[in-house]
Design a protein that fits this description.
By secondary structure, the chain is mostly helical. The longest helix has 144 residues, at 5-148. Helix 1 crosses helix 2. The chain has 14 helices and eight strands. The strands form three sheets. A three-stranded antiparallel β-sheet has the order 1-3-2, with helices on one face. A three-stranded mixed β-sheet has the order 6-7-8, covered by helices on one side. Helix content is 70%, strand content 7%. The protein has helices at 5-148, 152-200, 220-226, 231-240, 260-276, 281-309, 317-325, 336-354, 358-367, 382-392, 397-405, 415-429, 435-453, 481-498; strands at 211-215, 243-245, 252-256, 330-331, 334-335, 458-464, 469-474, 506-511.
Length: 520
């Protein structure tokens, strides 16, 4: 039986399709292989390029790192070089110093040799004089024995007694000379210390009195202050403890009282009442009470400021308040609080020069006059009042004794008392501190000018620099340079002979010739 044709045809078609499919797959596979090879080559090419780029970057980084390292090495080399140069310079300077020291030692050695030779020569001379003295003593002893017909022992006793008397006399003279020289040195040193302390600190002083004036807008205000049947003025005087003086003086009311704090309270309260316009007993009591509170705070603040200024710590508020009250107290026109601060500073400076406790000296100086804040209220002088107050406040015995004895009324037991007394005298007696001293100070400056004007040829004389210098104008037509020099020296000698003054006075003589022509 034969196979049908269509089956054969179908089989051939299927075989052809399979062959075509296999060929297609093979062709596709070849294409994929070629694409893969091309991609691999592209990847290799890119990898090679990236490797080249990376190599170049690494090479650049390596070069930069090498440059940086070279710069660091060069900088370190410069630093080391500078250090070596500096060390070399120091070694050179040390060598120079050693050379100078060696030269100085050689000079000292030569000086010592010269001194030894001189001492040896002096020793020989002393030995020769000693031998000569022994010979003279022997001759004198023999002469005494012949003249006095005494034996050797009696003559020796008489000779020894005579020499003892001579030695006693010489020793006495030497002691007197040394005492006088020591007194001069001590006096000069003390003057130098006091002047140095005063020059290193200077403070201004204010003057006050026992009255204060209050300005009023018009005279009708006087009637309002007095009040109906005087009830306002009585209430004011009772609340403040001062006296109001209302007279015919236009535009002024006088507040009078010995207690400066009360007087200040009265002045401030009266100012407020006048500004407010409401003046009656209840308002007066209210204003006076407010003013008292404000002034208490002000006084405490003043005390603290003084303590801080002088670096004094640990003071009680009561002591600070008493100290602040000294702001309103004056003594011989000198503000007592500023005087106390000045005494503290001068005492501290002197204590430093003497090797004493400067802080304790400042504390004693600041508090030495604190009794003046209460001497209107308590019996006794301000030294006793101040000492009692400080003793109750637990102050040191040196501070208490300084307040009690700074006027030399008791035996001095502590050196700080004498130190405070000295600083107190310096503060009170320096020119300008008190009114009486200021007058003497001005009078001395006038005396300087008057003495200079006595000399022939002097036209004008001016005392300047607080009396420490005198400028003299001399007539240039009547005097030459030699004459001016002689006048300058004579004026200085006259000052030394006729005046008493601290420090020095510089005399300057000015001789000037002027020529003037007019162009026409």
């Amino acid at each position: 039986m034969t196979t049908p044709f269509w089956i054969i045809t179908l089989l051939l078609s299927v075989g052809a399709a399979i062959a075509a499919t296999i060929l297609a797959f093979r062709y596709r596979e070849l294409g994929l292989i070629r694409g893969a090879e091309s991609a691999a080559q592209e990847i290799l090419r890119r990898a090679a390029a990236d490797a080249e780029t990376l190599r170049a970057e690494r090479l650049v980084e390596a070069r930069e790192e090498a440059v940086r390292l070279r710069e660091e090495i060069e900088l370190e080399a410069v630093t080391v070089r500078r250090s070596l140069v500096s060390r070399e310079e120091k070694l050179d300077r040390r060598d120079e110093q050693l050379d100078r020291v060696e030269e100085s030692l050689q000079k000292q050695s030569r000086g010592l040799e010269s001194t030894q030779q001189r001492l040896a020569a002096q020793l020989k001379a002393v030995q020769a004089k000693q031998a000569e003295a022994e010979s003279l003593l022997e001759q004198r002893r023999e002469a005494l024995e012949r003249v006095s017909e005494l034996d050797r022992q009696d003559a020796a006793k008489e000779l020894i007694e005579s020499m003892r008397r001579e030695l006693d006399s010489e020793i006495g003279l030497m002691l007197l000379r040394h005492e006088r020289r020591l007194a001069e040195q001590v006096d000069a040193k003390s003057r130098e210390m006091l002047l140095t302390a005063i020059q290193r600190y200077a403070a201004a002083h204010t003057a006050d009195s026992t009255t204060s004036s209050v300005d009023i807008p018009n005279d009708d205000m006087k009637g309002r202050i007095i009040g109906r049947e005087g009830r306002n003025i009585r209430a004011f005087e009772k609340a403040t403890g001062v006296d109001l003086i209302i007279d015919d003086t236009p535009g002024v009311v006088i507040v009078s009282g010995f207690d400066p704090v009360r007087r200040e309270v009265a002045r401030l309260a009266l100012d407020r009442l006048i500004d407010d316009g409401r003046i009656h007993p209840a308002r007066i009591e209210e204003v006076v009470q407010e003013t008292n509170q404000e002034l208490d705070s002000f006084v405490l603040r003043k005390g603290r400021e003084a303590a801080e200024e002088t670096d004094v710590v640990g003071l009680e508020d009561r002591v600070l308040s008493m100290l602040g009250k000294l702001h309103f107290r004056t003594s011989y026109s000198q503000n007592v609080l500023r005087h106390s601060v000045e005494v503290a500073f001068i005492g501290g400076l002197i204590a430093e020069m003497l090797g004493m406790d400067a802080a304790l000296a400042r504390r004693a100086g600041l508090l030495h006059d604190i009794g003046k804040a209460a001497d209107h209220e308590l019996e006794g002088g301000h030294p006793k009042i101040g000492a009692d107050l400080l003793r109750r406040s637990g102050e040191a015995p040196e501070v208490v004794h300084a307040a009690l004895g700074h006027h030399d009324q008791i035996v001095t037991e502590y050196p700080y008392t004498m130190l405070v007394a000295t600083a107190d005298a310096c503060s009170a007696s320096r020119p300008g501190a008190r009114r009486e001293s200021l007058e003497r100070y001005v009078r001395r400056m006038e005396e300087l000018e008057q003495i200079a004007k006595r000399f022939d040829g002097v036209q004008q004389a001016f005392a300047i620099s607080a009396g420490r210098e005198l400028r003299v104008i001399i007539n240039a037509e009547r005097a030459d340079d030699q004459w001016a020099a002689r006048v300058c020296r004579d004026i200085a000698k006259a000052f030394e002979q006729e005046l008493t003054y601290p420090g020095e006075i510089k005399v300057t003589v000015v001789r000037e010739t002027r020529f003037t022509e007019v162009a026409k």
